[in-house]
Amino acid sequence: MLHTLMKSPFETNVSLIISMLKKSDDFLALQDGVLIALKDNIFLKSIIMSSVKLYLIKEDVYARGIHKNISSKFILISYIHFVSLTLKHKKQMTW
Questions:
Q1: Based on the structure, what is the number of domains in the chain?
Q2: If the chain, 95 residues long, is cut into consecutive pieces of 10 residues, what is the mean pLDDT of each piece?
Q3: pTM listed for this prediction
Q4: CATH code at 85?
Q5: N or C: which end of the chain has fewer CB within 10 A?
């Protein structure tokens, strides 16, 4: 399953998201969701420990000026790669 976080993690039930993640899932943060990847935020350790692949939309990271402050555990991707993830996962959950 592809889990996409579009809202700030501070406006979302991150504990619920993490509890639903499985090893075969992918997690993608875009729009204000990219804030989850900021170093030293309260959600970072939990999402990293989930063992899923973690992605961020590169354009959203740069638009918010946070590219130097994100965890290296996240992979920056383009919107084209986002489309590839949606094709890979027949099931998707938007948060």
A1: 1
A2: 97 96 97 97 94 97 98 97 96 96
A3: 0.94
A4: 3.40.1260.10
A5: N
